[in-house]
Here is the input.
Amino acid sequence: MKAIQINSFEEYQEKYTKSITQPEAFWGEIAFNFRWKKKWDTILNWDFQDFQVDWFKGGKLNITETILEENIVKNPDKVAYYWEKKKKKDQHKSITYLELYYQVCELANGLKSLNVQKGDRVCIYMPMVIESVVAMLACARIGAVHSVVFAGFSANALADRINDAAVKVVLTADGLNRGDKKVDLKSMVDEALVSCSTVENVIVLDCIHSNPKMKNGRDIFYHDLIAGKEKKCDAAIMDAEDMLFILYTSGSTGKPKGVVHTCGGYMVYTAYTFQNAFQYDSKDVFWCTADIGWITGHSYIVYGSLLCGATSVLFEGIPTFPDAGRFWEIIEKYKVNQFYTAPTAIRSLMSFDLSFVEKHDLSSLKIIGSVGEPINEEAWNWYYKHVGKNNCPIIDTWWQTETGGIMLSGLGGLSPMKATFAGYPIPGIQLELLDTEGNKIQEANAEGYLCVKFPWPSMIRTTYGDHERCQQTYFSNYKGYYFTGDGAKRDEHGMYRIIGRVDDVINVSGHRFGTAEIEDAINKNEYAIESAVVGFPHDIKGQGIYVFVVVNTKETDENLIKSSIIDSIADHIGKIAKPDIIQVVKGLPKTRSGKIMRRILRKIAEGEKDNFGDISTLLDPNVVQCILETR
Ligand code: WT7
Here is the structure.
């Protein structure tokens, strides 16, 4: 299937205008090319006051039919993935669309044999292997809802997510390789399941041959489950608005929330943005370096790219193992045409000798993309010059777990490009910058809160099990708008630059954490009385995690306290949320009503020494001086 492609910037402008003046006709035309079992009755119903939206209502489909059946008819032997392992340079394998079809059907039948039914939730906690993609598609095939949890999250974090969605089956692996270390995933699952009562079965992929302990009656090896299963499985008929998946993400308050995406709109939008942002040609090899545990992996390693029949690289490794040339070596090996990575990776690789890039032939590259966090000018220039050799357009794609697909981005080489600017909205995306009072900001080069005023097909539908929270989080700050949580600037040409989060969400190496969530983990520590977490600018990670903590008298050794706090965070969230700085303080700056003034802590974390603005509302203004003295 090929989604309708825009071929010039003028055409983009025409399409953009049409997408605003006739949104339904615009999206109806795009949706037409996909494989539907029955076309929709209405294209769009929506309400942003009392949030509710549906796209292609009444349409019947199964997303895996556009991915598998549709592509197999045309090109069964086309490679869907080249899988590059992290360990040995010579180990790789590939899978064609036909083979993918067989594997998806086998596992779908395996899931059915465990009594997984349409609407049941299945958690996928797996490494970056082809079977993880197969697992997602097998769920979609039978109408089960997948909830992928990034394999870097801890047992506790996994348990929270399993319980929130009342998961029936967990798919995992015995373990995974990270750099030169092995991570034991199965025992994490075992630990998590002690507090999860809904899980009936655990399917275990034998990845690192570690001979894991299997619980009788509950655990089954992946290879045993699929043994003898038919390589054919009828696709469940889904309504366009039936749930496709849940993906947990952090917000400024409370526990991570399950962002819900549905079948029809997500399908149409991810394919459309994949085709257009990357200007994908059927012979191209595409590589997105994200993990499938994040939305980038869902939309552009799995769904968008497969819908368009693309050949992708699936990489299990990390950019610096065994050395800092790993990315460039893989681009050369598979002659990658579109490369999509995060600024954090670029900044980390920039710090190594240029010879790591220069010794590889990167001439296959046509488009290089950036995602996940703002890209600073230095990283943009380095990427453009040393990876793109001054002739590959950079697309800086801004979007979110909640948006499902790319919202702001250049379209391959068609759009004008400006360093550090994500550029123009994708057709259909109607953005507005608002000030604190909710007034529209009209003048150029002013900053405001980035909001969306009209629905788009892959937008969040609800937060799992708690629609009120969805309404509160995204639709209550500015009436009638979806609020992104980001601040942005728009130049005189209408190009957008994302400044960053304006809420208590921090973005560390492109991973999103709520400061409250980290504080909760710290506050469970036996030495902690209370804590405040803020982000601060970090050269490589974008933002680092700075912890201010007040401790009790149980222990006097600060180093011991700090490592114990690091352990608590690792236990409750995962090692990925390891703080960069922990400062033990006597007190936190609070207002008379007991609210922590994070503004001040953010400034201290940034290195500010005396310019704190008005601190007269503090209960005890001396606290600030005290913190500065021990910084
Ligand atoms: C937040 C969403 C989108 C997939 C990965 C992250 C930040 C994302 C950009 C960009 C500046 C960006 C925003 C956004 N962000 N892309 N190109 N430029 N900032 O998804 O975990 O849901 O995080 O990431 O702050 O709100 P996510």
Remarks:
- The longest helix spans residues 97-113.
